[in-house]
Design a protein that fits this description.
Distance between the termini: 43 Å
Shape: elongated
Number of domains: 1
Strand content: under 5%
Order of helices and strands: HEHHHEH
Strand order of the largest sheet: 1-2
Radius of gyration: 21 Å
Number of helices: 5
């Protein structure tokens, strides 16, 4: 019998064997759900604009204010042109943080529809390839997609 004892360069996946009796306890199911939610849905869930402003300001060193991206009627301002670029009148104020503004507005639109957004970073340990984690996270999101769940930003490359 041969045993593999070192790194295999032509392998793009890892195999495993787990023994179980197909009868998961309630505690095991709860831990599985807790792990998936914590690791694949993000660190923070925002349901109101104030929470969203706080998250973006803290994680991106920004100075957004509640109501900054809405007009006097509560409608979200149209800051971007048809090509997805900031309109000229907003370039001076938001240049350099265009991506964050776009993500903030997309998240705010969802919140204003009565939904929540979960935000976070994909963390990985040195011994787990980032490609594996991104694939798992995207498969988790795909499994959840329906009328109740969709991703706003799922490009995990940056």
């Amino acid at each position: 019998m041969k045993f593999r004892t070192d790194f295999v360069t032509n392998s793009s996946s890892s195999s495993f064997i787990v023994a179980h009796n197909n009868k998961f306890t309630l505690k095991q199911k709860e831990r599985l759900v807790e792990f998936a939610l914590k690791n694949f849905l993000g660190d923070v869930t925002c349901s109101i604009e104030e929470e969203l402003v706080e998250y973006f300001n803290e994680t991106h060193s920004l100075d957004f204010r509640v109501g900054e991206f809405t007009d006097e009627n509560g409608n979200i301002k149209d800051l971007f042109d048809d090509n997805g670029n900031l309109k000229d009148e907003f370039v001076e104020e938001y240049d350099g943080c265009c991506t964050e503004v776009r993500r903030f507005i997309q998240s705010l639109e969802v919140i204003k529809q009565g939904n929540s957004v979960s935000l976070g970073w994909l963390h990985f340990e040195d011994d787990i390839p980032i490609g594996t984690l991104t694939r798992l996270q995207q498969e988790f999101w795909k499994a959840l997609k329906d009328d109740n769940f969709h991703t706003i930003e799922d490009d995990l490359r940056f």
